[in-house]
Design a protein that fits this description.
Blueprint lengths: L1 E3 L7 E2 L7 H18 L7 E4 L8 E5 L2 E9 L7 H19 L10 E6 L9 H14 L26 E5 L2 E7 L9 E4 L2 E3 L1 H15 L6 E6 L7 E2 L2 H12 L12 E6 L5 E6 L10
Parallel strand pairs: 5-11, 6-9, 11-13
Antiparallel strand pairs: 1-10, 2-12, 3-4, 4-5, 6-8, 7-8, 13-14
Helix pairs in contact: 2-3
Length: 286
C-alpha cells in the first residue's frame, strides 16, 4: 500500500503554461532520450521527429535505425480523484487571491496551504467555487502566520498559538505560513491524504500496455512526474515511481506488437524496464 500523508503537497508549478500537447510530448521524449543517453543505452547520433500519422507519437532515430515510440503519462491523480479536486481548488484559490490582492496585502511574503485531511474535498465545480470564495473571504482577516510569536525559550509550548490558522472551511483546512519575500505572488500549496494499493497500480499498468499494444508502436514510454497543460506536476508521482520500482510492475501478458515498455520519471535518469522483447534493437546493451 502506497500512502501519501495529508501534509504532502500534491501540486507544484514546474513550467509556465499553458503547454501545448506537442510541447509536452517533446519534453517527455527529450527527457527520456537524455536519460537513456546518460545510462549509455542508446546509439548516437540520436534524432527525434514527429510522424505524419499518430500513432506513434514520435520516431526516434539511432544511427541507421528508426523506432516508433508511443508516449503516455502515468500520475497519482489518475488513481485518486480527491487529489485532482484538491489541486483544482488550490489553483482556483491562487487565482482568486491574485484577483483580490488589493484586499489581501498581509499575505505578501506568505503562502497558503489547503488540505482535505480527514474530510472529502469539494467535488463539483460549484462546490469548489463556493469553497474558494469562502476561503478568500476568510483570508481577508490578518491572523499572522503559523509559528509567529512562538516562544521557545522554555522549550516547545504545550499549546501552539493560533496564528495563521483559519480552521476548516467547507471541508478544507486552511493555514498561512511565512514565505520568501521575493516570490512576487502568494503561492497556494494543496495537499490530500491518499492510499493506493499495489494491485491497483499494477492493473493500471497492464491496462495501459494493452491499450497501446498496436502494430504501429514499437516502444511504449510511460512517464511519471510529467507537467500537465497548465504546467503543474504532481510531486507524489516520485513516490509512485519508487513504489513501483521497489515492488515491481507485476507480471504482464507478453505484448503482441510492443518490443519495449519503459517506465520513466520525468526530468531524471531514473528508468524501469517493464518489458524488453529478446532481440529488440531499441536499447543498447552494455
Amino acid at each position: 500500500m502506497l500512502l501519501v500523508p495529508a501534509n504532502v503537497a500534491v501540486d507544484h508549478l514546474a513550467l509556465r503554461g499553458p503547454l501545448e500537447t506537442d510541447r509536452i510530448e517533446d519534453l517527455q521524449i527529450l527527457s527520456l532520450v537524455e536519460a537513456l543517453s546518460l545510462r549509455g543505452q542508446v546509439e548516437h547520433p540520436v534524432s527525434v521527429r514527429r510522424p505524419l500519422q499518430d500513432p506513434p507519437d514520435r520516431i526516434v532515430g539511432q544511427g541507421e535505425r528508426e523506432h516508433s515510440v508511443e508516449l503516455t503519462n502515468l500520475t497519482f491523480v489518475d488513481f485518486r480523484s480527491d487529489l485532482a479536486k484538491v489541486r483544482q481548488l488550490g489553483r482556483r484559490l491562487a487565482d482568486e487571491i491574485q484577483a483580490r490582492s488589493d484586499t489581501l496585502p498581509h499575505l505578501t511574503g506568505r503562502y497558503v496551504t489547503v488540505s482535505s485531511a480527514g474530510d472529502p474535498p469539494p467535488r463539483s465545480r460549484k462546490e469548489i467555487e463556493v469553497a474558494v470564495g469562502l476561503i478568500a473571504s476568510a483570508l481577508q482577516e490578518d491572523r499572522g502566520f503559523v509559528g509567529e510569536g512562538l516562544d521557545l525559550t522554555n522549550g516547545f509550548p504545550q499549546h501552539m498559538p493560533p496564528n495563521g490558522m483559519y480552521g476548516s472551511i467547507e471541508g478544507v483546512f486552511v493555514q498561512v505560513y511565512p514565505a520568501d519575500q521575493s516570490l512576487g505572488m502568494v503561492p497556494v500549496i494543496a495537499s490530500c491524504q491518499a492510499e493506493l494499493p499495489l494491485a491497483e497500480i499494477r492493473e493500471s499498468i497492464r491496462h495501459r500496455v494493452a491499450a497501446k499494444d498496436d502494430p504501429r508502436n514499437e516502444v511504449l514510454v510511460m512517464t511519471l512526474g510529467l507537467p500537465d497543460k497548465p504546467g503543474y506536476i504532481c510531486p507524489p508521482d516520485k513516490w509512485l515511481f519508487d513504489f513501483i520500482v521497489e515492488h515491481g510492475p507485476g507480471l504482464l501478458p507478453t505484448p503482441k506488437h510492443l518490443d519495449v515498455v519503459i517506465l520513466h520519471l520525468w526530468g531524471t535518469a531514473e528508468i524501469l524496464l517493464v518489458y524488453v522483447r529478446p532481440g529488440s534493437t531499441f536499447l543498447r546493451h552494455n
